[in-house]
Design brief:
The protein is built from 5 helices and no strands. With about 140 residues, the protein is mostly helical. The longest helix has about 35 residues. It is globular, with a radius of gyration of 17 Å. It starts with a helix and ends in a 10-residue tail after the last helix.
Length: about 140
């Protein structure tokens, strides 16, 4: 693999990771808004704390942390599978909402586990250099 390909891979990985992160944050914001509209403002503080923790985890991941990567893989993987299992098949709207959430969570898990580009970007963030070998970090 040439350095040029590695640089392109890092850029693609950055783009893929940012796209997944934006999807997760938008989903979280939409869920917070819908939950507060349904249950009132008294439910907002714990939702804000959870959102801030999500943002901090994603920042930590963006900086290349292997610990953050594996925390995300476990949390989003379990959440994505749990949403599929919980899906009530007799309610179309619930299936669409839970299916969309599951897709976003499982896409992030998949990208972190199987995308060479994302893993090149995370390695670049950790090491600060382009490597000429192809292994997952």
């Amino acid at each position: 693999m040439t350095s040029e390909f590695s640089i392109a891979s890092v850029e693609r990985g950055k783009s893929l990771l940012i796209t997944c992160m934006v999807k997760l944050l938008l989903l979280s914001a939409i869920l917070i808004a819908s939950y507060v509209m349904r249950n009132g403002l008294e439910t907002l503080p714990p939702r804000i704390v959870r959102f801030v923790l999500t943002v901090l985890l994603l920042i930590w991941l963006y900086r290349g942390s292997l610990a953050a990567k594996w925390i995300c893989v476990v949390l989003y993987g379990i959440a994505g599978i749990a949403l599929l299992v919980m899906m009530p098949l007799d309610n179309l709207w619930a299936c669409l909402i839970l299916g969309s959430m599951s897709f976003v969570f499982l896409e992030m898990t998949y990208r972190l586990l199987h995308s060479k580009d994302v893993n090149h970007f995370l390695r670049f963030q950790r090491e600060g250099k382009i490597s000429n070998f192809d292994e997952f970090g």
